[in-house]
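Blinded run. Sample ID left blank on purpose so nobody reads anything into the name before looking at the predicted structure. Input follows.
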Amino acid sequence: MSPHPFRRFSTRAFGACLVLTALAGCTTAANVAQQRMRFSEIRDRYFLTILQLNPVTSMYLGGDGWDPALRGVNGRLRDYRPESLAREIAFFREIRDARASIRPETLTPAERTDHAVLGAQLNFILHQLEEVRYYQRAVDTYVAEPARGIGWQIHQMQRTEEGLRGTEAEWRLLIDRLRAIPSYLEAARSNLLEGKESGNLPEGLTIERDGIAGSHRNADYFRSNLPDLARRLIGERPFAAAVVAELEASALAAATAYVEFGTFLEDTYGVNRSPDRFVMPTPEPLRVPRGPHELYAD
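Blinded prediction complete.
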């Protein structure tokens, strides 16, 4: 029997440990690469989908230049129907769960930042959709989003040497967005009524200033300002007659929809002229030590 059996055993065990450590290192490296690739897919899918769900935001950011899948969104508005919001919530939950499966320590510093930002955004979005149900009182968003989208869309159109703006395809996408306004506001009415029934109400000044007054401003813009601007920017090009005629009809329908929406807001909520402040709801703290009454007094 060897006088040093333990030494021989220890040497063999140490060698085996080196082999296992090397194999574990290869496995860890492969896992890191897999985690990074998986996170890249999750992040890119989230970014592409959220721009598809928010066409005005996509257009503002130039999404159609980032991915060909976003080229058609400039002709749409966000879909606020209940079934569409339910699909949004399911998607965001899926992305949240997929993100949670990624270990931040396997990512690069830049990717870890994206990982943290993605988590914060998902928490905020789901909080707004599921807990706050902001779509039930988003009067200011419903009024502002279509008009701003149209304005930004015109601003981003191609310019010609003659001082004109927009190709025929660009103007037709704008017409598609105009045509989407009546159904957009119909979904808004349905959501606001649901909010009123459940007590999830918008603030009084938001209704009056952003909602009712904003609806009348939008009606004026779509009725006269937009058609005048379009005629000036389209000029006498071959497609002018047909496009201008379609735009005027679509803009008039949008103006009518906003007049009706303003009337709906008046009938549903009335006009609140007394307070000169906004309510700070208790579920939405500002993370400051003082309460809302102290802040208002200051």
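Unblinding after everyone has recorded impressions. Confidence is low (pLDDT under 50) at residues 1-27.
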